[in-house]
Amino acid sequence: MLTIEGLHVYYGAIRALHDVSLEVREGEVVSIIGSNGAGKSTLLRTVSGLLRPRQGKITFMGKEIQETPPDQIVRLGISQSPEGRKIFTNMTVFENLQLGAYTRKDKDVASDLEKVMDRFPRVRERMKQSAGTMSGGEQQMLAICRALMSRPKLLLLDEPSMGLAPNLVTEIFSIVKELNADGTTILLVEQNAVRALEVAHRAYVLETGDIVLGGTGKDLLTDPKVKEAYLGG
Amino acid sequence: MFYLKRFGWVILAILLCVGFESVVTSGKNFDYVYRMCVLAGLYVTLAVSLNLINGITGQFSIGHAAFYQVGAYITGFFAATGYKGFASNSLVQQLSHIGVNATWTVQGLWLVMMVLAGAAGAAVAGFVVGLPSLRLKGDYLAIVTLGFGEIIRIVCQNQPALGGAYGMKIEPRINSMWFVWLLAILCIAVCRNLLKTAHGLPFLAVREDEVASSAMGVDVTKVKVTAFVIGAAFAGAAGALLGHFEGFVSPPMFKMEVSFMVLTMVVLGGTGSITGSTVGALLLFGIPEWLRQIEDSHHNPILVSAGSVLGFAIMLVAAVAYVRHLIHHFHGEKKAKTQRIVGTFAAALVAQFFLGMLLNLVPALRDKSWPYADLRWAIFAVTLIVLMLLRPQGMFAHHEFSVARFFKRPKEAAA
Ligand SMILES: Nc1ncnc2c1ncn2[C@@H]1O[C@H](COP(=O)(O)OP(=O)(O)OP(=O)(O)O)[C@@H](O)[C@H]1O
Ligand SMILES: [Mg+2]
User: Fold this and answer.
1) Are strands A185-190 and A154-158 parallel, antiparallel or unpaired?
2) Nearest chain A Cα to B202, which residue?
3) N or C: which end of chain A has fewer CB within 10 A?
4) What ipTM goes with this model?
5) B414 occurs within a structural domain
6) What's the CA angle centered on B137, arms B131 and B143, to 5 degrees?
7) Which of B208, B211, B220 is nearest residue A90 as measured by Cβ atoms?
């Protein structure tokens, strides 16, 4: 579904991604793990068009998208819950969700909203609340809901468990599983390597801009190098 | 049904404006009042249209007088070159017999055309100025827009074809207060519809977070440029009306002060609030005019003192809002404790200064030489400082006027 080949991304002179190639197949959950500054968020930002690669090719459902502007990429069916949530804090929860569905002109938006809300009852209770006054965990859920409102074929999640209490982390990952079971393909970036590998069909390890390892989630969980570096030995 | 309702609103707006004009013109010696009402309407249009760029979309643009000038000069240019041909055109001649008064019909048609031309020209200028807004943020964009305003003014001042420093005469003079107010209402309606409907959401989203907006599929480029184009078009339309009302255009009419005045109106009212911009425009236009009038005819010392006290009070509030706004703008949301302490002291000092000045002022009221009008700008500056300290979000913050609000009971915790 998504193929990345030989991707090089720079911030000015700083190299953030070096010759990254990876693949996400339809129906999969693919996780990317790596330490701080490895380039995980950079990768997602490049896929969603917020950054331009210096070199390389990104193909989504047979179409090259490395030059496509971000608003068009959303229309193609990729949507992102960005790092640090980036919800619109001065707007209401409902308005945030409306913006999530901004690219859609079809009539099913209202019924999709209902579906999303059924999955996130905490968000439903707060529809009229100003989004900035929600708790961190609620904001994270809102960010995911908002990304779902565009009815994406591929959902990009950047550290959905960041700053959440353990029980909420569990909740978020079970939601990731449910979403995937309902047919959404997911590319997930996480610090929480154990969870990310558990939920993933396949995973990649990113180290200072290079993909150093790839394999099924299970394989990586038992890989000695991964264990040492990311799973705390 | 939908169109019928909309049509009804348009008719109502026209009737209101025409009614307003006839009330004003029914008075004795209405010239001065009439003039004030026209200018006030133009300022409302300017403030509300700048609010679209500045408040609603969050682009810190401070050269709004430039678009006003473009509109005015376009009319000036066409009036000099095209009006005679237009009036003697056979189609226009035929049309002129439809209305009550042939001259009025011809002039009305011409005015509508000029307003459209001014709006179109200013829209193009807005597009050009809007482009750098894609790359520049905050204070940098402010400098570019300010620079653009000055460039336009200075170019006109040095172009013999545009009348140079003297400016251009505009014939015929067309007084149409109701048309001015109709434009103001149209501007308010357009902005309100943008805010209230789903069309407006992307504008507000861009103000909050550009990256997140584009991640939602909002075309940030288009939104920013659209805001500049619409905002500039209304300012240009206002400029066209100004030109025909004054009967001339000249560079000093579009000095930087005009831009600052309009910006202040927006900030005073509360950036983002249309109600705020409207009220801000009426107050900030009205009060200095009032001070000027006091200078001309201070017969009634009690009225004069009451006037200045009220004026000072309002200006004080404005000043605080302004400075707070700047502090927020340049230092982000959170203020350090020391800053807050310094701010409080500054506010106390300013308050004392004002109090002293007020006391000095009252006896001086009987002194004919007291320069109220000249004081205007000083008052203006200091006021803004004070308002920003007291209420940085402006009078109305993000809120809009709504009748329903008066009937609602306050909730325990506002959502
Ligand atoms: N806007 C930027 N300008 C310059 N350098 C940047 C920018 N954004 C990221 N970088 C650099 O690029 C590298 C990769 O950053 P990125 O945000 O992709 O890391 P990450 O893997 O997501 O890290 P984390 O887990 O901490 O979120 C880092 O060295 C970072 O300092
Ligand atoms: Mg990151």
Assistant:
1) parallel
2) A99
3) C
4) 0.85
5) no
6) 80
7) B208
Tell me phi and psi for residue A27, to 5 degrees: 85, 0
Mark whether B183 and B201 lie in a shared domain: yes
- Among B201, B219, B254, which residue terminates a domain? B254
How far is it, in rounded angstroms, from Cα B389 to Cα B325? 9
| B208 lies in the same domain as B59 | yes
Question: CB–CB of B216 and A95 under 8 A?
Answer: no
Do residues B54 and B92 share a domain? yes
Q: Where are the domains of chain A?
A: 1-77+152-233, 86-151
Q: CA-to-CA distance for B24 and B33, rounded, in angstroms?
A: 7
Say if B412 falls within a structural domain.
Answer: no
β-pairing, A2-11 vs A14-24, is: antiparallel
Which residues of chain A are within 8 Å of residue B212 when distances are taken between CB atoms?
82, 86-88
Cβ contacts of B205 on chain A, cutoff 8 Å: 88, 91, 99
- B67 plus B98 within the same structural domain: yes
Three-class SS of residue A190?
Answer: strand
Domain count of chain B?
Answer: 2
3-state secondary structure of A118: helix
Residues of B with a Cβ under 8 Å from any A Cβ are 198, 201-202, 204-205, 208-209, 211-220, 398, 415
CB A185 within 8 A of CB A24: yes
Could you tell me if A52 lies within 8 Å of chain B, comparing CB atoms? no
Q: What range does the domain containing B283 cover?
A: 256-399
Alpha-carbon distance of A190 to A162, in angstroms, equals 8
Same domain for B158 and B14: yes
How far is Cα of residue A50 from the mean position of the Cα atoms in its chain? 14
A89 touches chain B (CB under 8 A): yes
Was domain A1-77+152-233 assigned CATH 3.40.50.300? yes
Closest CB to A98 among B201, B220, B398: B201
If you search the block for the tokens 């409306």, which residue do you land on? Answer: A98
Helix axes B301-331, B138-157, angle to 10 degrees: 120
Q: Are residues B235 and B342 in the same domain?
A: no
Q: CA B145 to CA B151: how far, in whole Å?
A: 10
Tell me, yes or no, whether B216 and B189 share the same domain: yes
Q: Phi/psi at A92 (nearest 5 deg)?
A: -75, 165
B187 and B41: one domain?
Answer: yes
Ligand nearest, relative to CA of residue A33:
1
State the amino acid at position B394 in one-letter form: G
Please list the pLDDT of chain B residue by residue as tens digits (415 residues). 566 777 788 788 888 878 887 787 777 777 888 888 899 999 999 999 999 998 888 888 888 999 999 999 999 988 888 777 777 777 777 777 776 677 777 788 888 999 999 999 999 999 998 887 777 766 678 788 888 888 888 888 888 888 888 888 888 888 888 889 999 999 999 998 888 777 788 898 988 888 889 888 888 888 989 999 999 999 999 999 999 999 999 998 998 878 888 888 888 777 788 888 898 888 888 877 766 666 565 555 555 555 556 556 655 565 555 555 555 544 444 444 445 545 555 555 555 455 545 545 555 544 544 555 555 555 566 666 666 666 666 666 666 666 555 555 444 433 3
Instruction: Give the residue from B175, B232, B184, B251 showing the smallest Cα distance to B40.
Output: B184
Helix axes B337-364, B372-390, angle to 10 degrees: 150
